[in-house]
Amino acid sequence: DAGITQSPRYKITETGRQVTLMCHQTWSHSYMFWYRQDLGHGLRLIYYSAAADITDKGEVPDGYVVSRSKTENFPLTLESATRSQTSVYFCASSESSTGGWSGANVLTFGAGSRLTVL
Amino acid sequence: GQQVMQIPQYQHVQEGEDFTTYCNSSTTLSNIQWYKQRPGGHPVFLIQLVKSGEVKKQKRLTFQFGEAKKNSSLHITATQTTDVGTYFCAVVNYGGSQGNLIFGKGTKLSVKP
């Protein structure tokens, strides 16, 4: 499904460098999310956003920064990458329901970005 | 914040055998969602359960929501190699300023032909 795209799909970087992972969706969904996936930990929420200029921390936000100036974009920045941030990162989006997040919102995921920090 | 325990972490079955994964919460859930991730792929939504005791079927997949809305299960009858992947349950979390979705750690299913 080309409605939500992530770039780059693969990235190798070095410790201490800044890395930005991009996420773009074409549905005008209100909600967007960043998850990281590691063996033994499943999908852990890093940051999420309910709308443009509204972001909030998830379970594992340390070392990450997000912004959402436009509804369709939700970039994730690692300001100073560490080896522990080697992971597969998934962006997801969901349309809002009346009254905001109801838990009934269904997530559509991007293809993922595999990041290796050396 | 909300947490959900999912078991088992891994399950290896012979093709044709049945498979079940369970999700358990210490608190009452408003609803629960199930996703499937194929190897090398991304999670894809399967189904949502909302009502106490609800049972939904999708071909060989049967999803149940407990009477107390604290647990859920996904049962696959007569597994096929196409069922290979990781199955996640997901529940709503209102721990932040806005709601979000928290995932269980997943059950990775492998099927031997």
Quaternary form: heterodimer
**Terminal CA distance of chain B:** 41 Å
Contiguous runs where pLDDT drops below 50 for at least 5 residues of chain A: none
How many H/I helical runs of chain B? 0
DSSP helix count of chain A?
Answer: 0
State which percent range the strand residues of chain B make up.
Answer: over 45%
Share of residues in helices of chain B: under 10%
User: How much is the average pLDDT of chain B?
Assistant: 93
Elements of chain A, N to C (H/E): EEEEEEEEEEE
**Shape designation of chain B:** globular
- Per the principal axes of the C-alpha atoms, what is the gross shape of chain A? globular
C-alpha Rg of chain A (nearest Å): 14 Å
The overall strand count of chain A is 11
Report, as a whole number of angstroms, the end-to-end distance of chain A: 32 Å
Main sheet: strands, sense, barrel of chain B: 6 strands, mixed
Fold and architecture overview:
The complex is a heterodimer of chains A (118) and B (113). Chain A contains no helices and 11 strands. Chain A has strands at 4-7, 10-13, 19-25, 31-38, 42-51, 54-57, 64-66, 76-78, 87-94, 108-109, 113-117. The radius of gyration of chain A is 14 Å and the shape is globular. Chain B is mostly beta strands and 113 residues long. Helices cover 0% and strands 54% of the residues of chain B. Chain B has no helices and 11 strands. In chain B, the strands form 2 sheets. In chain B, strands 2, 4, 5, 9, 10 and 11 form a 6-stranded mixed beta sheet that branches. Chain B has a 5-stranded antiparallel beta sheet with strand order 1-3-8-7-6, with no helix packed on it. Chain A binds chain B through residues 31, 33, 35, 40-45, 48, 50, 54, 56-59, 90, 92, 100-112, and chain B through 1, 6, 9, 30-31, 33, 35, 41-45, 48, 50, 88, 90-92, 94, 96-106.
